Amino acid sequence: MSSGDSAWLATPSPPASLPDDPLIHREPPLDRLRRFAGIRIRVAVVAALALAGAGIALTLTPSTAIDTFVSSSSPDYAATRASYREFGTDPIVVLVRAPLTTLIQQGPLTTLSRLEACLGGQQVRLDTQLAAYVPVSAAKAKPYGGRSSPCGKLMQLRAAKVVYGPATFLNRAVAAVNTEIGSLTTQAASTVRAAEQAAQKLAQQQRLDATATKAAVQAAGQLALERQLAAVGDSTAASVLAGVPSISDPTFLRQIVFGAATGATTPVARFSYLFPASDAAVIQVRLRAGLSDSQQQQAIGWIRSAVSMPTFRMRGVSYTVAGEPVLLADLAGEIGGQLGILLAVAVAVMALVLLAVFRRRRRLLPLAVALAAVAIAFGLTAVVGGRLTVAEVAVFPVLLGLGVDYGVQFRSGTPRGAIGVAALATVAGFLALLISPVPMVRGFGVLLVVGVAVALAVSALCVPDGPGGRLPAPRLPHALLASVYGAGEILRGVLPSLIRHPRRVLAVAFVLAACGWVLDAHTAVQSDITKLVPSGMPALRNLDTLERVTGVSGEVDVVVSAGDVTAGAAVNWMRSYERRMSARFGPSGSNDCARATLCPALSLPSLLQTAGGSLSAVPAYFQRAVLTADDHHAILAFGIRLMPLSRQRQVIESMRAALNPPRGVQAQLAGLPVLAADADGSLSSVPDRLLMLALSLVLVGLALLAALRRPRRVLVPLVPIVLATGWSALLVYALRIPLNPMSATLGTLVIAITTEFSVLLSERVCRQRGAGMSLPQAIDDAYRTTGVAVLTSAVTAIAGFGVLMVSDITMLRDFGVLTLVDLSASLVGVMLVLPATLSLVDLRATS
């Protein structure tokens, strides 16, 4: 500091008696507990609770269920759950790569028939009468590979609601044709016999000789047969005359898959959901509703293992298991692995900081206390039935950093009352997260609130008070701490200018904040799950492969409800809607889904078209895939390709706007793509983010007012915090890193975290002013003592967020980058603006 600036440090006036300050004269409950219980007892109790909490926390299950991304109260969520109950979950897709001309041969088709039965928890046998593979009764079914095989596990769990694929379709088609042929043959034979008997009787009445009688009988029988065949149509008549079709007859199967054209190798368009290309087929597995997260993950793992079984291997044929449910299941697996990595890195970072800060014994005590707080907080989460979402994984290092922060404050001698008020305001700021439209963000907020309360309590009970707001001078090898002290000295050097020109400082700070508030509306938002997971995940690569081959990666379902959805009005509307969506978003060619936004999939109209308009001609197995047994509900399915979430939301909204079903018919959209679009809409809502910020500021203000009791004393720390939200938004916009479900909470986190540091500094100034120091001296004292402690604890708190940068999960990594940079800049801004605010508000008059 220059000599010209030294005048602002005038000799303090004689110390005045301290006022009736609630932070001084009111003993906190934890301090009363400290007086009645010795340190060893307190540590023993905390250690026991931590061990119990850690043990219980091990039961937490990683979850990426849809209700962690979208509120369970939303209509789309309710429609999706209803769809799952009736028709099964979003499809898990097994992409079969091989020429279709090869797959319809007897050997490959037999293998595929058994694979599809395995995935459905069944066994098939060849029915000689139907000339097709049919399921074995559940009582007699034996899984391929035995009870302990993947097929056996799927059978025991009864995981699949429905499985439909090329082999199932062809077997059911052959069985249906043969059943109809058998029925027609029986009926025709009966009709012919009746005609022959009538002719025989008539010939006898006319006393014809044997030769004439025989001719008359034959002519009558032939005429009756021709009339019967004419009544059932040319195609059925041709089937009857050609003989019984068989699953081992490639010629008959070619006509189904490729149509009547001779030598055709392109599958017909209406079967694109089964045969998307001439060298690919698709097996879809819809799991039944009611499976837990872990059971769904197990089922997907068994499906992967099943396609790798030697029983189902074929030369020249490959299998790829893909789909959005697979991606979510793999993300849940990543959560468990990331947890250990993040916790280990966080512990190492905090240990290095503490070893640099303290030179006395028990330097790592704040870290041990923070670990105990984390264990207790997560144990409580498990006790109340919580789950481990992606967001809650982020709480581990963040809460560890905050726990160490409180330990550092206690060890540096910061008054316990001031720490308590700061923590109260931090909790109040976090409470605003509870209004987030994203459930996992609400869980993140709840865990932070509980964790901060636990961390404060444990630190207050187990960390002894330090020497009065000062930390020992750093040793040169500790570059991190030396930089902290250096930053503190730089801040002290500019304090005179900040105090002499407070209005200029606040004006510049306000302009920057206003720019941030305006630009926040233009910050990009990313909620596409494929962009938030590790880019190297096999499930993500497989999803890309699925889209490249089939043109789609997910499925949007239109759930249609009516008294009878098979009635003419409902079916006609479904056909009309399917045509309109195909015309607007569908393939440009006859079977070209590769360039389409939406591609029609399995639906009631498509099955009726295949069956010539007769529902009775549709095999019951396929009816159950799109129609409930009571005929009250049906689905129209559309495959949808990967696209930016903003574009996907536009497509979904266009589909929703075009519904308009007739009277007596209801229609709703369902499926993971619909819920993802909803999540994008929630995150993109600027009013929702502003509401969360405003609520956070109001709650912090009320908490400070309840603790400090004087409005002007609340205003001083609150002004820099309000401005920090604008600086934060400006920095996020400048970094060009899209917001995601986690980083969308950044403004609220800035309020909650910087509140602590602003309160501690302003309260130090308040107390020193009450003790008789001039304002310049009180500010200098606060920045020289508490300021260094604040900067040091800020390093630990912000480092907890920064640890997330090592995560492979893109959502957590981007969140870590933004919070590290944003909180650091906001903290510096608060420490620069706070002196200017203090110079405009005389705390001595209010203290």
Summarize this structure as a short list of keywords or feature phrases.
single chain; 847 residues; alpha+beta; 4-stranded antiparallel β-sheet; 10 strands; 7% strand; disordered N terminus
Kindly state the number of beta strands: 10
Beta-strand level of the residues, as a percent range?
5-15%
- Helicity, in percent? 55-70%
Q: Within the largest sheet, what's the order of strands? A: 4-5-1-6
Shape: elongated
Rounded to the nearest angstrom, the distance between the terminal CA atoms is 29 Å
Low-confidence stretches: 1-20, 469-482
Can you count the helices? 33
Largest sheet: 4 strands, antiparallel
Spatial extent as radius of gyration = 36 Å
Structural class: alpha+beta
Question: Which whole number gives the mean pLDDT?
Answer: 80
Protein architecture, described:
With 847 residues, this protein is an alpha+beta fold. The protein is 63% helix and 7% strand. The protein contains 33 helices and ten strands. The protein has a four-stranded antiparallel sheet with strand order 4-5-1-6, sandwiched between helices. Strands 8-9-7-10 form a four-stranded antiparallel sheet, with helices on both faces. It has a two-stranded antiparallel ribbon with strand order 2-3. A hairpin with a 4-residue loop joins strand 2 (124-127) and strand 3 (132-135). Helix 15 (390-411) runs parallel beside helix 17 (439-462). The radius of gyration is 36 Å and the shape is elongated.
